[in-house]
């Protein structure tokens, strides 16, 4: 009779486990995220791989679009400044109503004195222009000559600035890819923690059921039953918190991908950790060659040099080939109606109170600052690479430890399953072993995601996607 009772009890426990494995332990919560839905619904959602997440983020991320627009702006600015090397054409037109009566006086003999007629005009002649509409048009065309050298230096500086903006875009792309990788692994990690807690729930429910039974038999105290109630509530609250973390991580990933944060998806399993890595010294060399911030720092040195040389070129007088045309309308032929000139124009500031000298010194100081910035940037990159290498190695060690713990928990569960079959162990011990295995699996998954996060940071540190 006692053996039949134990067999019935074991069948009840295993049946409960089967129901729980089918997702009957927790009612589905209404949410837009796939990880909180039943397993059969999750399998119908589109699977999002890491490569797809990175591809969508590169195409739709807001930060990347802003960086791309900054590059377009710099390119347009360069194209606009290139036109300064060509002739400058200006047309000035004035149409107005005279409010005064301008006049011109021609003195006697202004047009000559002749023996037959005498002076022309014979007396002073005053010509008045009545108040009426008049017009003036002035056309000027000036082709810069001596300033071509200065314009060349300024354009070189702008070209380097454009290249620096492109390096900023590359840096933003690397940062976005790294953020997407970390966000993707965060979803996987949060999902693993949720699965572990859900796998532990049957153990706490069984403990609570046994506490109720034993309290009815008066073999435990009321405080023991209340403690079992609290522990069950605690694990249920932990599951809710873990579900919220999964939701937050999924929304963060959707945002980085530039799509609706309510988009439902399921993540793919991540691969095993790779074991082949280059030496830190080799990665430092690659980082100094690939990092966009190092490239930009070097470009800023060249740009500052061109800026200084362009400032010094301002000492050269501004000489241009100029054409001017001037015409008037409705001035009673008092003023010349058509005047055209072609020649060289000169504009020079012989004394500037050493303003240009101080501006030139300021540009040179900026160049020295840029040179100092190159060294500081390179040292910062080397420190980042070194730290990323150490973090990756530490993650690798933690992954090895979690693999060992997971293997031990799995072996223990197998042994307990054999004991339960021989009725040499309590089903509660089996629940505990299953909970321990789920926890070990979760820790192993978290260690694996931590490794891939560290691997992503190392790629970003050496300037690779």
UniProtKB/TrEMBL annotation:
Residues 1-27 form the signal peptide. The keyword Transport applies. It is found in: Cell outer membrane. It comes from the Bacteria. Gene3D superfamilies: Outer membrane efflux proteins (OEP). SUPFAM superfamilies: Outer membrane efflux proteins (OEP). Pfam families: OEP. Its main location: membrane. Keywords: Cell outer membrane, Membrane, Signal, Transmembrane, Transmembrane beta strand, Transport. The keyword Secreted does not apply. InterPro entries: OMP_efflux, TolC-like. GO terms for molecular function: efflux transmembrane transporter activity; porin activity. One of its GO terms (cellular component) is cell outer membrane. PANTHER family: OUTER MEMBRANE PROTEIN TOLC. Belongs to the outer membrane factor (OMF) (TC 1.B.17) family. This is Outer membrane protein TolC. It comes from Edaphobacter aggregans.
């Amino acid at each position: 009779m006692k053996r039949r009772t134990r067999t019935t009890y074991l069948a009840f426990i295993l049946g409960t486990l089967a129901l729980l494995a089918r997702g009957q332990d927790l009612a589905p919560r209404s949410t837009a995220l796939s990880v909180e839905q039943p397993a059969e619904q999750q399998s119908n959602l589109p699977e999002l791989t890491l490569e797809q997440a990175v591809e969508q983020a590169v195409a739709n991320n807001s930060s990347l679009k802003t960086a791309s627009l900054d590059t377009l702006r710099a390119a347009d600015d360069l194209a606009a400044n290139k036109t300064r090397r060509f002739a400058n054409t200006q047309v000035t037109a004035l149409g107005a109503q005279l409010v005064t009566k301008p006049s011109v006086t021609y003195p006697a003999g202004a047009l000559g004195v002749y023996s037959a007629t005498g002076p022309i005009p014979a007396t002073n002649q005053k010509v008045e222009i009545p108040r009426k509409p008049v017009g003036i048009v002035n056309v000027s065309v000036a082709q810069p000559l001596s300033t071509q050298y200065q314009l060349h230096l300024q354009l070189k500086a702008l070209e380097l600035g454009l290249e620096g903006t492109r390096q900023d875009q590359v840096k933003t792309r690397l940062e976005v890819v790294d953020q997407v990788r970390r966000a993707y692994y965060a979803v996987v990690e949060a999902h693993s923690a949720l699965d572990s807690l859900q796998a532990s729930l049957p153990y706490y429910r069984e403990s609570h059921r046994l506490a109720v039974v034993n309290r009815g038999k008066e073999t435990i105290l009321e405080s023991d039953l209340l403690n079992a109630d609290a522990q069950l509530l605690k694990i249920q609250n932990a599951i809710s918190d873990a579900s919220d973390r999964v939701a937050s991580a999924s929304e963060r990933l959707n945002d980085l991908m530039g799509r609706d944060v309510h988009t439902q998806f399921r993540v793919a399993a991540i691969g095993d950790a790779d074991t082949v890595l280059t030496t830190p010294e080799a990665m430092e060399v690659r980082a100094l060659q690939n990092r966009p911030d190092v490239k930009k720092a070097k470009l800023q040195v060249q740009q500052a040099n061109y800026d200084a040389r362009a400032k010094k070129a301002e000492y050269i007088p501004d000489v241009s080939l100029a054409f001017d045309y001037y015409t008037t309308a409705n001035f009673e032929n008092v003023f010349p109606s058509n005047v055209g000139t072609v020649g060289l124009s000169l504009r020079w500031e012989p004394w500037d109170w050493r303003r240009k000298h101080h501006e030139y010194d300021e540009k040179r100081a900026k160049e020295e600052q840029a040179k100092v910035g190159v060294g500081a940037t390179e040292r910062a990159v080397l420190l980042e690479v070194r730290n990323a290498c150490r973090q990756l190695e530490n993650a690798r060690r933690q992954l090895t430890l979690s693999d060992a713990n997971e293997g031990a928990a799995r072996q223990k569960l197998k042994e307990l399953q054999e004991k339960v079959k021989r009725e040499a162990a309590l089903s509660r011990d089996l629940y505990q072993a299953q909970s321990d295995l789920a926890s070990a699996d979760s820790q192993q998954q978290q260690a694996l995601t931590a490794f891939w996060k560290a691997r992503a940071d190392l790629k970003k540190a050496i300037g690779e996607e």
